[in-house]
Amino acid sequence: MKRWIHWIVLVVVFALGTAFLGWWTVPLVAALCGAIVGRGAWGWAAAAATTAWALLLVENALTGPLTELASTLAGIFGLPGWAVIVLTLAFPAVIAAAAAELASVLRGFAPSRRAASEP
Question: Tens digit of pLDDT for each residue in 77-104?
Fold first, then answer.
């Protein structure tokens, strides 16, 4: 399969997981991605999670008062309104990258099957 199809599937899994189960599915899905793909998965996971959350934000902007919420939160934190959106998109990127990289590193520590079968 082409790499972009894998990426689209990952975006869909991140979006559906977040929408139906909550934000904590981001590190779980990213860790699974890192364990399967190995080194370098952190970039794919971070990009897919950010894209998924951007799509969820667009969907929320079309159906609800996202700009009012962003400006209210920005006022609470003393930030401009756009900063709340940027931080919202940075959150899944950071946790997905960290979880995917951790899982890929831990994968490297696991004993290989070939080494286990050798006398």
Answer: 888 878 888 988 999 999 999 999 999 9
What angle, rounded to 10 degrees, do the helices at 3-21 and 81-109 form? Answer: 110
- Beta carbons within 10 angstroms of residue 65's beta carbon: 11
Q: Is 114 exposed, middle or buried (0-12, 13-18, 19+ CB in 10 A)?
A: exposed
44 and 37 Cβ atoms separated by less than 8 Å: yes
Token pair recorded at residue 37: 């793909």
Q: Which two tokens stand for residue 71?
A: 């400006």
Phi, psi of 104 (to 5 degrees): -70, -35
pTM of the model: 0.82
Q: Which two tokens stand for residue 110?
A: 């696991």
